[in-house]
Predict the structure.
Amino acid sequence: MDLNLKGKSVIITAGSKGLGKATALEFAKEGAYVIISSRNEEELAKTKHDIEKETGNKNVHFLVCDITKIDDIKRMVNKAVESFGTVDVLINNAGGPPAGTFDQMTDEDWLYAFELNLLSFIRTIREVLPYMKKQQHGHIINFASSSIKQPIDNLILSNTFRTGIVGLAKSLSQELASDNILINTVGPGRIGTDRLAQLDGILAEKQGKTIEEIKSGIEASIPLGRYGEPSEFAKMVVFLASGANTYVTGQSFVIDGGMVKAY
């Protein structure tokens, strides 16, 4: 199947590690022009080197960007346009907010999570839309969480704002369809990343267990019997954002090995 991604311009936020890095790698394999961003320049430089070494794709750029800051977002999109002429694909990704229960969260925690996990997506979409509308095509993929289908204990902030992403995407799918701009949401289940290891560590401490015990117990609840690989998640993302997808928009997908029981 030809994904029609060669030479397409792709922005990936939070792209220096984890799911963002895995997604950037898969786009680079398809010959796309990729810009990755995060707040850590050292990690970005290493990721660029790793991707170029593995794929031979020399059209991988990076930019330091704090997506809670509108000026950084504008600079990132301008960089993509200056480098590649336009933006064909936007991958909205952000680190998870702090874990905890409702009683533990302050107004500052709520505001930070809103800016990081919802407002940043809104702002980045706003910046790329003029280019996508002008060319009458584009793909936007928002990373969320399996909590868009089933809330996760001790993640009240994530549960709240990840579902907001779904509402945003569903509404925009209606508004942007006439411009041939497709927007979808993807939620990872238990995919083996540093963020997941952090959450497993918090759970282990809370329950007085080892991380290995926590992981083993969770894997037993996953029909496929294991945590997913970042590349498995990324391949789904790349398909949805590719020229092979011409009719799927406004949808939410959970990549979780069958773990979530909700429809």
